[in-house]
Amino acid sequence: GLGQKCAARSILYTRDAICTLNTLQTNASALEQVRRERCNPQVQLQAMRGFLERAGITVEELDHLNIIHVTGTKGKGSTCAFTEQILRSYGFCTGFYSSPHLVQVRERIRINGQPIGKELFTKYFWQVYGRLYETKDAHGGTMPAYFRFLTILAFHVFLQEKVDLAVIEVGIGGAYDCTNIIRRPWVCGISSLGIDHTQILGDTTEKIAWQKGGIFKSGVPAFTVKQPEEAMAVLKDRAKEISCPLWVCPELEDYKADCGPLHLGLAGKHQRSNASLALQLSHTWLQKRCLPGGIECYVLVQCMVSGLAETEWHGRNQTLKHGAVTYFLDGAHTMRSMQACLQWFTETAAQHERNASGPVTRVLLFNATGERDSAAMLKLLVPCHFDFAVFCPNITEAITSCNADQQNFNVSVENMLTRCLDNERSWRLHHSLGDNQGTQLLIEGGLPLISEKKADTLVFPCILSALQWITQGRDAVLAAKGVLAVKPNIAAKAALLRSAAEIHVLITGSLHLVGGALKHLDPESSK
Q1: Using CB atoms within 10 A as the burial measure, which of 32, 172, 387, 504 is most buried?
Q2: 243/327 same-domain check
Q3: Across 98-209, where does the E strand assignment appear?
């Protein structure tokens, strides 16, 4: 009937929006642009201001969003998630802008903790895209790149929806990031610092700290967690230079809760510093909004305690149990975050193994992208004693009807698979298994299927085929997607998976890999 036609039209209109958005997608080329422009950061911010004004938003309007601006190398997303949940627990209407998305691009822009709906996304997308497209010719044909566009869209959504506050997570760095167009945030935060995006931010902790400290604003309170000595010295210098009051957060143990022991909704010991940073950010925001001289910072009231306990942040230290198969998902993609992932996985998997009814087969599903040191991350994972190490690119499924939200136009499939084979080789070398010079990707139906190896490593062309092989029909959610056809010798390798009482799968190395896996494992996330 008419309702079904309208629904179908709405879905197509949303898909059109996402496909149009993907034409702006340049993560790889945007990074190159940032590298070119980094000698003159003002060029970037001026360009961003121009795009913002073309979209009908002034920088002054952003002052009314009562922004909490957060950067860091590790834990900035979790810190934002804790902060947003705490302030939502107080009854405020929250906006939250984060990146990257796991399954759907709408996840990046949240109202009251929920990704904006398809209709809202579509409506606001075309409003902003239309204004920018109409003014394109008058501005040398320029359109903002993917991340810049989404940042403008987020600001537009939050202004239109009249949120009480916006929690804004920096994309890359701080000083030159397009979110740093914000002039008057209410409070700033810097989570744990480490080495990542070295081609843009520099290859030392000091250089990275300088970039991150670029979000400090004169007279705006800022907080950071305990940092390496050299990074902390740089942050303090930056704060002094900008006239920004900077405090270091206390340990979580130093807080006194009026209402029983503290429980965090996010697993892993490393979340404790993120939670402390979130408490300082939300408390400072509350003081400015409505609690001048109010609650003692170290005494936590119910809203703060429940906010910390109720925080969810998918794809980070997340456990999913589907019958005999348990998935441990973490988007760790730097050495420090992989160390934290390893600690969490070791403890959590051990608990699950103690409760298992029989032998457990342990599988690693890994991919890493960009300039990340895959070999070093894989070396950290070797002591976990995986029975299989499986590698695949961040392609959700090897069919042409791939989800538009998951598409990446910047890296060729050939390059992705080459990277997977390199990762497999690194794993084998760490295991002192040598390198089989005869490795050939098997071809079936025009697609490489798996690499034929005598050892316990396999390479698949997509996330779905990797998950189907790992689970051997024992996960009902995946089994509903059909059976993976493989050669007999590859099927024979899976005997251990079929006979185990339980299969434990660690999925890590890339947030995009985790997102692609969640698309298959949690179908609700794709709706």
Answers
A1: 504
A2: no
A3: 109-111, 114-115, 165-169, 187-190
Check whether 424 is labelled as a binding-site residue: no
Task: Please report, rounded to a whole number, the percentage of residues in the chain having pLDDT higher than 90.
Answer: 64
Number of domains in the chain: 2
Is 352 marked as a binding-site residue?
no
| 325 and 264 part of one domain | no
Nearest to 167 by CA among 246, 87, 96: 96
pLDDT, tens digit, for every residue of 350-363?
Answer: 999 999 999 999 99
CATH of the domain at 493: 3.90.190.20
Residues 380-438: pLDDT tens digits?
A: 999 999 999 999 999 988 754 445 555 554 557 788 888 899 999 999 988 765 444 43
What is the strand order of the sheet 187-190 is part of? 114-115, 109-111, 94-97, 165-169, 67-71, 187-190, 222-224, 246-248
pTM of the model: 0.86
Q: Please identify, among 310, 341, 372, the residue that sits at the C-terminal boundary of a domain.
A: 310
Classify each residue of 167-179 as buried b or exposed e, where b means 16 or more C-beta atoms within 10 Å of its C-beta.
Answer: bbbbbbbbbbbbb
Which domain, by its residues, includes 175? 13-20+37-310
Q: 485-502, pLDDT tens digit by residue?
A: 777 877 888 999 999 999
Residue 169 annotated as binding?
Answer: yes
Shared domain for 302 and 326, answered yes or no, is no
Of 201-205, 325-329, 446-450, highest mean pLDDT: 325-329
Among 377, 375, 381, residue whose Cα is nearest residue 349: 381
- 333 and 240 housed in the same domain: no
Residues 87, 147 within the same domain: yes
